[in-house]
């Protein structure tokens, strides 16, 4: 019996690989709910064993992946299957493989190739107290992120057998210094004008609030969104490990940066399907909302996304988690992200523009506005109109705008206040407060209460909208380093809640 593991969602589950050989007609069968990639392991293992200089057993071969009721996916079972067959045919001593976890895809020549989700799989070996874990050389640095677990990372099946038989013992992989990936985030100093929109992005970064940018084509909506990562705080080590785990399972972890230190910025195209956006599939995998965990999800041209996909955003925006239910299992993916969405004011893009006239009919305007439901808009804290800028503002030799570095200092100062406030909670920003915390930390003066009461009546705010206004006001007060939420903080929060109206 050889030990291995598979991923269920973003978590690892232990799997036992058993092999049996019998006489009779040649037949190689893999049982235990394997997917197509696991079934194809038969041919890869056959060639890899021969390529490594060993004899492939003849007759009937049965490989069982236990537990049998757990779906097995991916090519990571190639290596444990090959080792199990070598042990079964007495070409490798079984005692040499005890309490060792084996993970890896085999090439036809016996080489070991990287697999997805190595970090989650290595955690399983650590939890059960394995002596060490064997992973492909390309995944060695990633697996070494699991503290207290010895990692051996051979390049081929031949190297692994030489290590097990002590012909040539491999050194354990040591954790390398983390490398920060530069995603070339834009700087706010390159954005001319748009003072109100920049202020809203600062509030969004300080409190983790969602933003909707509405404006004509070319007004700077995309630049504002892509500049947001430049003012966000760095990931903590715990957040970095969680993001790395998700990206590893999703297969997007950079080979030269095993630990993801930069906050994710995901920008899916508007043709993205519901499954690709929120996750799922026959074997559930994380979607864009989970790949954006602890970072930014940017949805450009929001009304052009499929209605079903947008409605699926309701749960992650409210709960910070995606629940994917299937007949065989239910999987949960973390999805705490800042949503930045942008759209034109109308199909032609020039409704309310002072320079160009809108050519959309009333029916087209109504159809366009109905593409985004009220409940989804209610979950977006800041609604900002991004207006067209004149030449005097745009000229490149004009006065330079404030840099991201200066804005980021204020954001970090506000985040530190929130870290102190929520040190006993499992949240990191004001936007994640549940009603009990809102009641505790968002007390208002009488004048602010009166203003809010008037706003609820005139702006027809829902209960959710009222709570979100309080959260934004709390963030604005934190940016001002004010312990109390003052009238001006509530007034500014209401200004961002009021959706822009176009003539």
Task: Write up what this structure looks like.
The chain has 503 residues and is of the alpha/beta class. The protein folds into 2 domains: 2-164, Ribosomal Protein S5, domain 2 (2-Layer Sandwich), CATH 3.30.230.10; 188-425, 3-Layer(aba) Sandwich (Rossmann fold). The protein is 37% helix and 15% strand. It contains 21 helices and 16 strands. Strands 11-12-15-10-16 form a 5-stranded parallel β-sheet. It is elongated. The chain starts with a strand and ends in a 6-residue tail after the last helix. The mean pLDDT is 90.
Brief overview:
The chain is of the alpha/beta class and 503 residues long. The chain folds into two domains: 2-164, 2-Layer Sandwich (Ribosomal Protein S5, domain 2); 188-425, Rossmann fold (3-Layer(aba) Sandwich). Helix content is 37%, strand content 15%.
